[in-house]
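Archive entry. Fields below.
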Amino acid sequence: MQTWSLVSICVLLAIIARWGVSLNSYSGAGKPPMFGDYEAQRHWQEVTYNLPIQEWYFNTTNNDLNYWGLDYPPLTAYHSWICAYIAKTINPEWVELHKSRGYENTQHKLFMRTTVLVADLLIYIPAVVLYCLYLTDGSSKKKVSIMFCFLLYPGLILIDYGHFQYNGVSLGFALWGILALGLGWDVLGSMAFSLALNYKQMELYHALPFFCYLLGKCIKTGLMGRGLFLLVRIGVTVLATFALCWLPFLAEPSQAMQVVRRIFPVARGLFEDKVANTWCSLNTLIKIKSILSGDSQLYLSLACTLLAVLPSCIRLLTKPTFWHFKLALVNSSLAFFLFSFQVHEKSILLAALPACLLLNDLPLMALWFLQASTFSMLPLFLKDGLLVPYIVTSLGFLFFSIYLLSALDHCSEDKLRLGAYNKLFYWLPKMDLAFIVRWKFYISIAAMVGLSIATAVLIPPPHLPDLFPVLVSTTAFLHFLGTFIHFNVVQFSEPPSRKSQKKSN
Amino acid sequence: MAADSCSWFPALAVGVSLLKCFFISAYRSTDFEVHRNWLAITHSLPVSRWYYENTSEWTLDYPPLFAWFELGLSQVARRFDANMLQVENLNYASPATVLFQRLSVIVTDVVFIYAARECCRCVREPKGSRDVLSRPSFVLAVLLLWNFGLLVVDHIHFQYNGFLFGFLLLSVAKHLQSQHLQGALLFAFLLNLKHIYLYVAPAYGVYLLRSYCFAQDNKDGSVRWSSFSPLRLLALGAIVTSVCALSFGPFIAMGQLPQVLSRLFPFKRGLCHAYWAPNIWALYNVLDKSLAVLGIRLKLLEEAELPRASMTGGLVQEFEHSVLPSVTPTVTLVCTLLSILPAVASIWLRPHGAQGFLRCLLLCALGCFMFGWHVHEKAILIAILPLSILAVESREDAGIFLILTTTGHYSLFPLLFTPAELPIKVALMLMFTIFSFTALRKLHSSQGSLLHPLEVIYLLGLVAVAIACEVVFPLSPWQQRLPFLPLLVTSVYCAVGVCYAFLRLYASLLLRREEKPKQL
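PREDICTED_STRUCTURE:
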């Protein structure tokens, strides 16, 4: 069969899976007074459509910032504004100022779901298809298999089409950036990534690897000659893109400052809810929030994050190859997720995107992490009534990624890049690491299945109401920490494959 | 892709089963309530009341074996939500009920998956290691398991066809493997589960009589009367009567047979279903309608004299034709019998083994679909699924398959009319169509193109019809005045394709008969 037909079948399946999930409930459905992210997105449409652009980020009589105030960068606001125009032509009630609060019905749900699908079809899905076709190696069947797993990653589908968000847009822009960098179009890549940053500030998780890769590349080509020219071009592109996105807010400094304040809410505390990161997991042992003041929490997390990001970024700076870039993206986003301030459970998607890029090179590790990342959001899915789609998509992803990528067949020490561990632990008797890894994988999958069932079915003891969410987040945290350490080790061991070297040039 | 030659089948089966789970909360038709009601009837009422109960308008109108099947399901249903098992709880659809009913369809599809596996075993594999994706058995497995029509009708619209087609395909596979008694047993079960499979009963009857009861043929392929084996006929008869006794026995004992039969064959319904199935009668109705319009234009007819035009909308079940003679059930019966007669006669004269039987089965199914009384559009699946087996084996049949499936599947579109399901039906249809076109072309790549350019143009016309009916029409002002127009256009356009496929299939059967002796 020709590649085009396999690719189109893959994309169609991805659309069916996405739309199948979207038939289910969304966050905050029928839960006044605050509802959930669905209402937040609808409210932004209402605000951006009805208010002048100067009022969008300010608390005014018509714009109550305590009710889902806009707290994403301008591109999100523009996107809401475009959607609002379409909404207005279909049914003006959907975006009526004040009166439309908490508006819910099946038609409106259909409209909102469609906007997500359209955004995905325009930005995320083409990026994935092009990435898999041009930047993974192997037969066309192999490429399509990777594409299939990439497109069917459950976490993103469940959050975007179940819970309701537009992560596909920011992640899609970031992926366009990665794609362009991989193909050697550095200027276009930095522009795409700037757009991603301007859609969601969380894309900062990926910013350092982008910066280090481009800088390292400039240094390698010679900072005095062509490298400098490239650096200037990239710098100008980034500045121009940012200026373009922020144009309406640049007239007054107070405007721009207010946007920045809204985007980085430092006052909200070290963490909220149950997040599978270091602070929340540590909280079960030490109550950090009560020991440290707000500011020192901020500095502590900042210091830890920088420390965690540093090694992989320095490595990337000295060896700016695409292979190291991909690894640094995972490491940096995981470092941010594990250690930074005010992390949401959904932010794990930022680490999941670069992990998908590694499905071809390190199938077992990548899919293991991806599975754990989906699992870490289980309490959220349960709250949104997405248990059935969670089970279906997770089982499907686990089964097909193992089957199509033959993840468990090719797991010799060499394939898993475990060579470095033998050097690290040279003083221990030599063990079959691949065997151990495989058993760890089985045990971890069993633990995730067990905990999923327990969370969904069992009623926690009355004195420990949060037992299962805490267990889920701690288990997921252990997985993330393990992945973080492993990918750092892989990045510091020499790249054994010729293929990744070849591609970086 | 794993190199192991067998591992792809479970992967396909798991994949499609998970896909079906996505549709759990999708739109469901009144058939959902029909089956819930039957669960309630069989669970809470004594057997003697089953075919008399009429609290709900959806009375039990499947044969008794299906009622027993529902009784079995209801034992599990009790654990999900006992309230669904009360006859008075009309239109009851709690989340647990929906989950249970949807899962029951998905789980009972195991029969279908097993049958598809057996069919794949019957396909000749060409020698030499070929790519998995272009092996006939792989293509057949996808064509069966991922069939668009079954997914849409069973898992969105809601019915138990997968389970039933499992019996049909399994029985066909048994015949292909020359295990005739098993095949007959399975078909007897099938008939007692859903009587619509009477469509293909003539093919079974004649084939079993001809190729099983007469053990040998003459050299020229005609029947050798002396080889008749009464023992085999007795065995067949015993199988069929015992299955029927199991199913109908209790009702015969209670003297309820007339009541049961009146429920099974309700001739009070009209010639065509609310939405016209794409068959001869759809063309006939349109011809009648256009003659009437033409007559009024040319002042040959008086508008007042015509019976009230009642073909509008989907609500009216019975209507009279205005110009052409009205069609009675007897006429349809005669037409149907005439249409299948040559096929049946052909396998009596020269059976051509199980392949010939399969071809005859298809013609019976299509003949009944074309000329039957009150045919549902879903019945096209009885032809599409078995035709998949032939399509992977010969180029000629692959071409017919592509025309029949594409038009037949498209004619199922009006089943799902809710806007939320539009992306799913379009994507599923595209996926299946792209796969069947590319895979079959690859499979028969050595023998030239599968379709005549005119056929390609006709099929491309479907895209135009789809866009016009699904996108343009709802936005146009005609939506208010002529709401039935898209249904009419769809069924007429598809009827042309189905008729053409029927004729081509007939031609392939009859021409084969003449070719064969030349080769010998």
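CURATOR_NOTE: Chain A touches chain B at residues 1-2, 5-6, 8-9, 12-13, 15-17, 19-21, 23-24, 106, 110, 117, 141-142, 145, 388-389, 391-392, 395-396, 399-400, 403-404, 406, 409 (CB under 8 Å).
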